[in-house]
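Sorry to interrupt, but I need a hand with the structure work. Go ahead and set the record down below:
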Amino acid sequence: MSDENLEVQVVLRERNQLTLPERVAVRIAAMPGDRLLLTVEATDPGVVRVKRLKDSYAGIATGVYGHTDEERAAYIAEERDSWDRDPRIAMTAGAPDGTPYLTFDESRRTYWQTDVTRERYDRDPKLRWPKCDICGRSIARMREHLVAHRAGTLDKRGVNTDPQQRLRSRRRVEKWRASLARKTR
């Protein structure tokens, strides 16, 4: 693998699709079906990093948590004991409407397209929200959301059917787009 920078031009097609050039795919060892993580740099929104996500991270931390089974078991027991005292655990219990939040493992299964790490799970509340079986949206207050689906105030895509709310949302989006246009000038 070369240490030289690789620059390749690509064209964004309809529906925001692009083809990963073969030279790039070879450089990052990507294969058809691999998951890729695109990261937009906060300091320069024009810079996007592409990272191939591993299917498994098994074995990458060998020896970090102990070299013997006893040492690893002691580490795990100490970690589990700390969870009972950790104030962040209270926020993982559930939403005010009684909706239980996803556990770390459930979040990894639900948000498989995202590189869910323990740090991101603890930091980002959205990774604890369940996904709606009807519209697929991630919702913290799922019970209230499902009541809205049954009442007909949300359609099958999770869009509010109230004309006044739709108008307010449309105005918010227009205002947001205008602010983005001003930033890019």
